[in-house]
Amino acid sequence: MKAAVYYGNGGPDVFRYEDVADPTCGAHEVLLKVEAVSIEGGDTLNRLGGPLTTVPHIVGYQCAGTVLEVGELVTKVAVGDRVVTTGTDGSHAELRVAGEAFCWVIPEGLATDLAACVPVAFGTAHDCLFEFGRLQAGETVLVHAGASGVGLAAIQMAKRAGATVLATASSDERLERLKAYGLDHGINYVTNDFEQVTRELTGGRGADVIVDSVGGSNLQKSLRALAYRGRCLTFGDAGRDGGGLLDISTLRGNNQALIGYFLGAELFLGTRAHAMISGILGDVAKGELKVVIDKKFSLDHAGEAHAYIEDRLAFGRVVLTP
Question: What span, in angstroms and rounded, lies between the C-alpha atoms of 321 and 256?
Answer without folding.
Answer: 43
